[in-house]
Write a structure and sequence with these properties.
Length: 220
C-alpha cells in the first residue's frame, strides 16, 4: 500500500458531492504527510450552507515554505481554467476540485513529484459569490494545511488502510457468496417444484384413466 492508494481513498471521500445539485458536499480535512518523490492530494472543501442558492467561486492556493514568514501565490482556478503561478511548482500542480461548473465547492489539487522543499503551510482560499434573489453576496473562506514531507510513508497509517481494505474485500466476498447461495437455492427449489408438479400431473392423468369404467366400450 503506497501513498497513491491513500491519495485515491482521500479523493474518493472528497467527491461525495453530486455535480448538479451538490447536495452531498461534506467538509473533510486534508492529510498532512506526503512522501518525497510521490504525488500528494492537498484537500480543500468549502460547502455552501444553502445548496439551492446558485453561486460561483474562484479558488487560490498560497504556500509559505517552512522557516519563512511570507506566503507566495502558487495556483488559481477560475472556471474552467487552472493556472500555475509559481515557477517552483510549474508542471507539478493538477486541479482535482469541482469540475464542469462555476459553483466550486472542492478546491483540491495534486502535487506531483513531491520534494522536501514542499514542506510548509498551504492556504486554500475560496472567493465565493452567492446569487440571491435580491442581490449578490460575496464570501471569503480560508483553509490551512500544514504539510510535512517524509522519506517513507507512515507504516502505521498504511497498515490501518491495508486492514480496512482487507476487511472491505472480505465483506464483499461474503455478500457475494451469500448471493450465489441464495440464487442456487432458489433455482434448485424451483426445479424441484416443477418436477413435483409434473409428477402430480402424470399421477392425476393415470388416476383418471383407471377410473373410467367405459374405456374401450362403444354402443352401436
Amino acid at each position: 500500500m503506497t501513498m497513491r492508494m491513500i491519495s485515491f481513498l482521500a479523493l474518493s471521500i472528497f467527491f461525495i458531492q453530486v455535480p448538479q445539485g451538490q447536495t452531498g458536499c461534506a467538509e473533510v480535512d486534508s492529510m498532512t504527510e506526503a512522501v518525497a518523490g510521490e504525488s500528494f492530494l492537498l484537500g480543500c472543501i468549502s460547502c455552501k450552507k444553502r445548496a439551492e442558492v446558485p453561486g460561483s467561486a474562484i479558488v487560490e492556493w498560497h504556500f509559505k515554505p517552512a522557516g519563512t514568514e511570507e506566503y507566495i501565490h502558487i495556483f488559481q482556478y477560475e472556471y474552467p481554467f487552472p493556472t500555475i503561478l509559481h515557477e517552483n511548482f510549474e508542471g507539478r500542480l493538477e486541479w482535482q476540485g469541482t469540475m464542469w461548473t462555476k459553483d466550486v465547492q472542492i478546491g483540491a489539487i495534486f502535487i506531483h513529484n513531491v520534494t522536501y522543499n514542499d514542506t510548509g503551510s498551504y492556504r486554500c482560499t475560496f472567493y465565493r459569490t452567492l446569487y440571491l434573489s435580491l442581490n449578490e453576496e460575496h464570501v471569503i473562506i480560508n483553509k490551512e494545511v500544514e504539510l510535512t514531507v517524509v522519506e517513507k510513508a507512515n507504516p502505521e497509517l498504511t497498515t490501518v488502510i491495508s486492514e480496512i481494505m482487507m476487511y472491505v474485500l472480505i465483506v464483499v466476498l461474503q455478500l457475494w457468496m451469500i448471493g450465489v447461495l441464495i440464487y442456487c437455492y432458489k433455482k434448485i427449489y424451483a426445479e424441484n417444484e416443477a418436477r413435483e408438479a409434473r409428477k402430480a400431473a402424470r399421477s392425476q392423468n393415470k388416476f383418471i384413466d383407471l377410473k373410467d369404467p367405459c374405456g374401450g366400450v362403444y354402443l352401436e
